[in-house]
Amino acid sequence: MHHPIGTRIGCAGVSAALFLSLAACGGGSGTPSSAAPSESGSASGATQTLEVWLPAKATDGNDAEIWDEVVAPFEAEHNVDVTFQFISWKDYEAKYSSGVSTGTGPDVGYMYVEMFPTYIDAGAVEDLGQYLTEEDYATYTTLTDKYKIFGKFYGIAQSGPQAVSGLLYNKTILDSIGEDVPETWDDVIRIAQKATQDTDGDGQIDQYGVAQGWGQTFYQDLNWNWYNFIWQAGGDIFDDDGKCIIDSEEGIAAAQLLYDLKNTYHALPEDTMSLINTEAFDNYFVPGNAALAFVGTSESTFNSLADADFEYGFTYDLKGPNGDMGARASVDQIVLMSACEDKELGWELVKYITGPEGGAKYRELTGSAPSTVGEEDHGFALTRDALAASLDTSIRPIKAARRATEVYDFLWKTLQEMMNGDVSPEDAMNEVAEFANSLDYSAPAD
């Protein structure tokens, strides 16, 4: 998915604030709880409260209605009132940082990969190794290495792989220029050039090779405009130790491809720098005026094409120069916060809203992919088979790394400068690596 971050405290600042807050409150230092169901609510006779923070995700804005239905059985069984805060994606990280650092954060929350390192280092999120049982490992299909952060489980995925970034193509345009479905970067370059045309003879380009937007004010659109490309080039942003390696030959190749699509081949719309990626998709691909688009393959994406008067398709398996593939997927997770006073009850809620009862109900109501064994698949039918086929070859999450949010923010702004023609691809990648590696990315001392 998409994890736009609004105004936020820098990672180092958040970590320091969290450490101070937890030290003052004694957070994270309690005795680890067992994985046994909590009886504290019903035993005392008083209704307890658990607070949950989630991003506002429902396309109809009915998050509260969905979650009220999901948690009602849990509330009745445990004599607990589960309260929710639904926070916009843009404000989510800043709100979470502020809440946890001031001791007013949630008991249970939602984290995406970029968020985890800060909270792990601060001791603010529970290592689930002390809670998970053999039954849990047998129940969840998402308790795999792809979902580990720094080699451990700190959360449980809300659903199977979602918001996978893919390449959509207008087959009607491809047929008109004598091209097949693109399989490689060379195909993309050739198609992008051939498809960029003045189709009505008025002297103005009205059909483009690629519908892509570079005007986003924060790094959300890295999801569609960067991660896949660097993986397809055979590179990555960080190595396993957290060092930024984006200035590698592979990183520069990915940047060069994007630079050339706009500045050498002129295959992007003229207003590409003022549009976010979804706007470029809606303005050019949906009306049939672009051959290709790199977007999240969600149900809402395809719903926008319901009235399209052209044939289209998509792929997750685009290959870079050496045959490497990569399609970014969200592995966002539900976490138990260390400040939760009743961790047994909090853990039971985490399992309930991700597991075969409440979790399955949530996935049914939202059309999400399953994450437990034997669960019915309510994921979007159009992408179901393609996801399954590419799960072990192309689809992957981004790598967790300390100070990553600061690096992504700098990377996005530098890519925008590059796409504007103000800096070369090589210089852009060198600048990002220099900035990233000037920041401390070592693990805190025990």
From TrEMBL:
Signal sequence annotation: 1-26
InterPro entries named among the record's database cross-references: Bact_solute-bd_prot1, SBP
Keyword Signal: yes
UniProt keywords, alphabetically: Signal
SUPFAM superfamilies, alphabetized: Periplasmic binding protein-like II (SSF53850)
Database matches in PANTHER family: ARABINOSE-BINDING PROTEIN-RELATED (PTHR43649), DIACETYLCHITOBIOSE BINDING PROTEIN DASA (PTHR43649:SF12)
Protein name: Sugar ABC transporter substrate-binding protein
